[in-house]
Amino acid sequence: MPPTQVIWSEQMMAYRFSETHPMHPIRLELTARLCADLGLFARANLTLVQPGIATDEQLAAVHDADYIAAVHRVSAHPEVPDEARGLGTEDNPAYAGIHEASARLAGGSLAAAEAILGQKALHVVNFGGGMHHAAAGKASGFCIYNDAALAIQRLLDGGVKKVLYIDVDAHHGDGTQSIFWNDPRVMTISIHESGMSLFPGTGYANEIGGPDAQGTAVNVAVPARTTDAAWLRAFHAVVPQLAAAFAPEVIVSQHGCDGHRDDDLSNLRLTIDAQRQNALDIAELAARHCEGRWIATGGGGYNTASVVPRAWSHLVAIASGKPVPLATPVPRQWRDYVLERYGVRTPESMGDNAELWWRSWEVGYDPADPVDRTIMATRKEIFPLFGLDPWFD
Asked: Which domains does the chain show, CATH number per domain?
């Protein structure tokens, strides 16, 4: 069983834009409670770690100093927004203490990087992290500080030569991509709903990285209404091949679960079953290429009771070495708590009873299939840069 850390403290729930904002911290509370009720937090190889607040110096590893100062100002005076920097907008409402709350999530992913560097853990999960839209100098899409980027930069500064970032949120991981756009040590792979139909409107196949890092930005922009089979086909037609070619030392992944069919903030049609399988796939890539070194973060996910806690409890279970079977009943005490506290009836099973099957790329390219066209667009842009054949490899 791999030594595993999970970053968690109820103080992380201070990341709260408003009671009606989609990014509501009850999703974190319910995830932690479900993990506990499933017995995951009691596993002998799993340690809970409370995050500290990232310092301004630590944040400056990926964020502009004037942006950090702006977050401080808005944190102290939320009545004076800075919309030019994305602070105090509809997506990112200002509130007192926003700096501390955001820096704590960032501190969690920095702690994850330190655990990997110090060989204190092989796997670390920060389900409160994954704020992938935050750019170096601007907040965006509910994200203030980019904790995943901070973790990646800390790994690099600590001597790691290559990091693979895999983002499976329904929305393009634009902030993380932009921060490492011209850094050949970091490959960012984002599989997301096309910007033609979903925020932030970026993440197309021809976004391949800066002049010194061609091929290290990888984007698979699947069409709206993509279901499990096509999504998993897209992942397996691109990610394992590039992971092998890039040869990373650590994988950092973002597991936004807003692609679920019951999430209102995307148009994808995925199930818990596919999201769980994807986490298993990423864990396998870390085992194959990185001697297991893996940091997993949360991200988007706005069905706060029925989807997010199940998806991220599966992630914790997988990271700690013993996956929870899909047929496992959701603990009755957890379901009763959610019903009594929030008035929501939640699923009785840890899975969605989906039939997981997808065509491997080896069976051939179908030009009539819009997902296959998406896959081929990405493969044609990226694969030749790594000596791979986009048609066959």
From this structure: 4-55+101-360 (3.40.800.20)
Which structure tokens are listed for 344?
């929501």
HSE of 148, CA atoms in CB hemisphere, 13 A: 40
Q: Can you read off the two tokens belonging to residue 45?
A: 């190889």
What is the spatial distance between Cα 296 and Cα 320, in angstroms, rounded to a whole number? Answer: 11
Distance linking the first and last C-alpha atoms of the chain: 33
**How far, in Å, CA of 199 to CA of 99, rounded?**
24
The percent of residues in the chain predicted with pLDDT above 70, rounded, is: 100
CA distance 20 to 107: 26
pLDDT in tens, 236-278: 999 999 999 999 999 999 999 999 999 999 999 999 999 999 9
Nearest to 125 by CA among 25, 228, 45: 45
Cβ contact 143:134 at 8 Å: yes
**Nearest one of 44, 53, 36, 31 to 4, comparing CA atoms:** 44
Q: Are the C-beta atoms of 157 and 186 separated by less than 8 Å?
A: no
Average pLDDT in the chain: 98
- Using 50, 70 and 90 to split pLDDT, how confident is the model at 281? very high
Task: Quickly state the pLDDT bin for 364 (edges 50, 70, 90).
Answer: confident
Q: Edge-to-edge strands of the sheet including 294-297?
A: 46-49, 4-7, 123-126, 294-297, 250-254, 163-167, 186-193, 217-222
Asked if pLDDT for residue 362 goes beyond 90, the answer is no
What is the set of active-site residues?
133
Tokens representing 76? 């102290």
